Amino acid sequence: MTSRLIIDTDPGVDDAFAIALAALSDDVELLGVTTVFGNVPLANTTRNALRLLQLCGRDDVPVAAGAERPLVHPQAARAAHVHGSDGLSGRSAALPEPERDVEPGGAVRLLVSLLEAADGPVTIAPIGPLTNIALLLAAFPQVKDKIDRIVLMGGGVDRGNSTAGAEFNVWSDPEAARRVLVEEDVPRVMVPLDLTYRCAVDTAWLAKLAGTGPIGAALEALTPDYLASYRRSLGWDGIVLHDAVAVAEAISPGILRTESYPLEVDTTFGPGRGATLVDRRLPGLRGEGEGTVAPGAVQVAVDTDVAGIGEFVLGRLTR
């Protein structure tokens, strides 16, 4: 069965693997890619997305540039210290020059046109800050019926990475994240740090990827700065493919085990700003008036076959 998919992204090394995962999967109809500020500025994320699609031989996929800043408050910090100055370990220029330019009109216009034209439900996989998706749902609620699921990489249950409690994508625009995760009723799957860290891959995995051909070698070559960063946080030589884990669920529903929870996003200016507060209490123990899990609760990915995820991603990237 073919999955219709749109990726919203801020490439980013893990985004690069996620885009390639979708672009190289025969059972995915990749309708489009939209870009957003995040790991690096919008100009970089957009150029990276175009080059990655060109690497994968997918210049048939339209790309549109989206939000260059958060909805309300300035982005606190970018992630060049993790992804390199250009988002791809300083190696984006080694990727092929794109033969296709960005679509006119911007990301939200492209999202609306792709959803309206689709002949069936579409999954959206936001793997950067949620600004574009918040704008889409606020300004064009009529397209929600065309969205099958929003499968996003972001948030944390028991941890953060930008702060003790906040994951980078949510922390970059908490107001947008709250709009999507708390205020909307579109089916949503949140793939948090707690699970993606468990799906880290080692340098042997990267070596296998590099040995499979030009695309695998090019992807592995984007990882040195990312690998150096994760060597410090993991304590061993490996990388975390955060966004590829979310895209794996987007294209193969059920590869991650999820549980339904209400949640809140902290949009205050204290130390918890950007944290996702997942209410894992039994329904009867939630506060007065909260009752049972509401239909609008978010599916939170809590478990998977960790080795199987690595095999799934590697297999798709090396077909």
Strand order of the largest sheet: 3-2-1-4-5-6-12-9
For CATH, the homologous superfamily is named as: Ribonucleoside hydrolase-like
CATH class: Alpha Beta
Radius of gyration: 18 Å
Oligomerization: single chain
Overall pLDDT confidence: 94
CATH topology: Inosine-uridine Nucleoside N-ribohydrolase, Chain A
GO molecular function: purine nucleosidase activity
InterPro entries: Inosine/uridine_hydrolase_dom, IUNH, Ribo_hydro-like
Keywords: Glycosidase, Hydrolase
Protein name: Nucleoside hydrolase
Describe this structure in words.
InterPro entries: Inosine/uridine_hydrolase_dom, IUNH, Ribo_hydro-like. One of its GO terms (molecular function) is purine nucleosidase activity. One of its GO terms (biological process) is purine nucleoside catabolic process. Residues 82-101 are annotated as: Disordered. By secondary structure, this protein is of the alpha/beta class. The protein has a single domain (3-317), classed as Inosine-uridine Nucleoside N-ribohydrolase, Chain A. It is 36% helix and 18% strand. The chain has helices at 13-23, 42-55, 80-83, 107-117, 131-139, 168-172, 174-181, 193-196, 203-210, 214-220, 224-234, 242-251, 306-317; strands at 3-9, 28-35, 63-65, 122-126, 147-153, 188-191, 201-202, 238-239, 256-261, 263-265, 276-278, 298-304. The strands form three sheets. Strands 3-2-1-4-5-6-12-9 form an eight-stranded mixed β-sheet, with helices on both faces. The chain is globular, with a radius of gyration of 18 Å.
